[in-house]
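Design a sequence for this backbone.
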């Protein structure tokens, strides 16, 4: 695994999955791509609180955050109904799988592996895999958590109907302070409601972003 470069890994996974399991491919890659764009814009908008995680690292980890789902059987991942206990246990492992897939690869920084590992932690400590709470959850992981939930609600998942923008924002408001960082939810909703998110989604210097280039190149090859 460590002899592969990250582009090799992405292309190998994506090509295989696109050919053999297109629904699976669409689930992870489309969702990752949408999440990456919004995570970058949210972070750029509140960069004063962005700590040391760079925009590139956040964008890239948002893109890769569900890569551990490559190890989740398609029947579980795309099940058209509520999961049973055993299936839920399988899904809960995807952040750890994702971190294990990525951590030894070139390009992958500690911020990236941590974000993938902790993107399902909750502000109230009831998340997984470690039950971290509040600001003990790395900033990048808190950011990706907000955007991940928003893109999932907007797209609809499995048996759930896609929500409108307003309904998705309302759902985020209800999660603020429980599941999600309330400050980040506030910042995100302000931008979504002001329709600023998409306008600033483009990185200020896309040609100089190694991770943006890597994502673009991967999508060019596999889409
Ligand atoms: Fe996830
Ligand atoms: Fe996700």
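Sequence:
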């Amino acid at each position: 695994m460590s002899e592969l470069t990250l582009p090799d890994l992405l292309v190998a996974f994506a090509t295989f999955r696109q050919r053999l399991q297109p629904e699976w491919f669409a689930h992870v890659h489309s969702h990752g791509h949408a999440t990456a764009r919004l995570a970058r814009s949210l972070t750029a908008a509140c960069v004063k609180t962005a700590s040391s995680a760079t925009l590139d690292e956040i964008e890239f980890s948002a893109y890769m955050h569900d890569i551990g789902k490559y190890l989740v059987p398609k029947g579980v991942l795309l099940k058209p109904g509520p999961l049973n206990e055993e299936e839920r246990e399988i899904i809960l492992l995807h952040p750890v799988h994702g971190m294990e897939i990525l951590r030894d690869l070139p390009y992958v920084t500690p911020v990236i592996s941590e974000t993938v590992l902790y993107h399902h932690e909750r502000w109230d400590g009831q998340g997984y895999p470690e039950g971290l709470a509040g600001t003990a959850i790395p900033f990048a992981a808190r950011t990706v958590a907000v955007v991940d939930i928003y893109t999932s609600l907007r797209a609809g998942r499995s048996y759930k109907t896609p929500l409108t923008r307003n309904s998705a924002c309302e759902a985020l408001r209800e999660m603020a302070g429980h599941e999600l960082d309330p400050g980040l939810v506030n910042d995100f909703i302000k931008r979504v409601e002001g329709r600023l998110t998409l306008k600033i989604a483009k990185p200020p210097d896309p040609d100089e972003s190694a991770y943006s280039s890597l994502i673009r190149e991967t999508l060019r090859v596999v889409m």
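Residues 196-208 have pLDDT under 50 and may be disordered.
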